[in-house]
Amino acid sequence: MSYLIDNNEGARYLLMGNESIVRGALEAGVKVAAGYPGTPSSEIIESLSKVGKEMDIYVEWSVNEKVAMEVAAAGSFAGLRSLCAMKQNGVNVASDFLLHLAGSGTRAGMVIVPCDDPGALSSVNEGESRYFARLVEIPLLEPGDFQEAKDMAKWAFELSEELRQIVMLRSVTRMSHASGNVVFGKLPVSDVHAEFKCDGFVLDPMEGIMTSAPVDYRHTQQQEKLNKAREIFEDCPFNTYDGPDSPELLIITSSACTLYSREAISILGLKDRVGLLKLGTTWPLPPKLLKKYLSMTDRIMIVEEVLPFLEENVKILAAEMAPEIGVKTFYGKNDGKIPMVGELNPDIVVNAIAQTLGIDYKAMPDEYANKAQGVAMAGTPSRELTFCPGCPHRASFWSIHNALELDGRKGFVCGDIGCYTLAILPCGFSSLKTTHSMGSGTGIASGFGKLGGFGFDQPILSVCGDSTFFHTGISALVNAVHHSSNFTMVILDNSGTAMTGFQPHPGLKVNALGDEVPSIDIEEVCRALGARVEVRDPFDLEETRKTINQLIEDKQGVNVLILRQICALSPEKKGKKKYEMTIDEEICLGENCGCNRVCTRIFRCPGLVWDKEKEVTRIDEVICTGCGVCADICPAGAIKKSSVLKEVA
């Protein structure tokens, strides 16, 4: 049994923030949960899927975030508490439906959990989800620690039902992936029956139709819900204050920045001089509560990640209240005290407070910083971003790069989001020339493929993962085929959503709950759309390269090349080697070879290591997966492979 469904009230566990949110949802009686995998949110649906059958919860990995929200909405409409989870980019995908859902409202409690990634630790941007709450006019909650993540998640469902509105519970990387002690409440015992009532009066929120029209009525109703949330937030227990009655400086903060701010105040010894107002309800802001604390001092600092969302909204309220509370001086992102980009930490907050209050203090003395940097430079081996040992993407981009070089017409590759995004770097031979959102590689390639009338003659390829194909790649392909665009779409099929932990997608025969389900054949889908389709093994370098050269010569529309090889880290491959790899040191010429160490200098598989003393390449047997590709790229034939399927530790 998972510890997440321990029903002993008062039990204490060390939980990751995402697990805390899951526990809160379980205590609220969630019955439907859907999402699309994206770090730092993935563990929410993953954890729910592991207890779904025991707790009688329907859990799914949807094809994309918009569909996930629609699935969750169906649960709410039918009287079941529901949740959808996604990373910050996913809110953009879901926003079309979110805008309409905010207008129609919900029935049973429904919570959207976006997990933002300040600093882009596992993303290509650090986009903000908070602005969507203001844009579509729904309540926004932000937990300040791990216990609160659990308690607030449970309360979010209750708030949603009181308002008949979807509620946003926003997390960030350091809240989702850090851990803290959490005390459990009781799990509910419920025997709910799903029913969608839709035969009542058209405007009846509980038995009428669910639609955002008529706009004048629905929008007015939406505004009333937001006003009610504002009133509820005035006395919300998740808004707390610590500090003196008349602080020299008031810090207003939320989310993980609460922890940074508390630590900074403690480090500086300013508990008697600085007040800390932690807001759990950050949209709409409770005006009476803010008025009370803004009246305490003339100097206010806003600490938040990433953009000045809270700062802007507090300033608006302060301007409106100026005749009563006086003019205030604000510090934060707009005056440069707090960085406008990236993750925060206690040192950044310490420096901001010290600078504001004129305290001579450095979070890290220059002498220590210089010494630490020197030690790091001297003692830490250089480790660049790269594909894993045995990654099929390395082989794919080797063939793509060589095919385009052989073609000689300055061809290029359009990419999007996945492990293969690394192909903008040397590990992918700098193949990717555009990288934006999921599926955008094929959409952009579709545009390039229609520029022939303007003299455009460069070969175009797009790359797209198998999970991304179902997410947004398929729609881009439909558009391209319909408009007879001329390019080649390469689908890097590694049999799972590898980047986030091998979550299933529609191309596989299993769902989030482990049930056997029909799989959707990518090859057949592409053929049905009218594209020419070829399937190859990327580990067969020569055949893959030949096929790419043939396809980019074909100017009859869209071609699809499926490069199919399971991810090196997948459960199916774990502990197995197809080949035993060795180096013949008598043949290896190293730097004297005409290739000048093509294996370790250019191919760069981490399983290949340059032995400086012997001046030969060697195999790192600990991490080598035995894919055998390196034997095919060695021009001297020094890398040998023997066909032995072997269990490894």
Describe the model.
By secondary structure, the chain is an alpha/beta fold. It folds into four domains: 3-234, 3-Layer(aba) Sandwich (Rossmann fold), CATH 3.40.50.970; 240-357, Rossmann fold, CATH 3.40.50.920; 392-564, Thiamin diphosphate (ThDP)-binding fold, Pyr/PP domains (Rossmann fold), CATH 3.40.50.970; 576-647, Alpha-Beta Plaits (2-Layer Sandwich), CATH 3.30.70. The strands form six sheets. Strands 2, 3, 4, 5, 6, 7, 8 and 13 form an eight-stranded mixed beta sheet that branches. A six-stranded parallel beta sheet has the order 17-16-18-19-21-20, with helices on both faces. Strands 10-12-11-14-15 form a five-stranded mixed beta sheet, sandwiched between helices. It starts with 11 loop residues before the first strand and ends with a strand.
**CATH-defined superfamily of the largest domain:** Thiamin diphosphate (ThDP)-binding fold, Pyr/PP domains
**Mean pLDDT, all residues:** 93
Radius of gyration: 28 Å
Number of domains: 4
What would you call the structural class?
Answer: alpha/beta
**Which parts are unreliable, with pLDDT below 50 for 5 consecutive residues or more?**
none
Could you please say which CATH topology of the largest domain applies here? Rossmann fold
How many helical elements?
Answer: 20
Strand content: 15-25%
CATH architecture annotation name of the largest domain: 3-Layer(aba) Sandwich
Query: How much helix, percentage-wise, in residues?
Result: 25-40%
User: How far do the termini sit from each other?
Assistant: 27 Å
The total beta strand count reads: 25
Indicate the overall shape. Answer: globular
- Give the biggest sheet: 8 strands, mixed
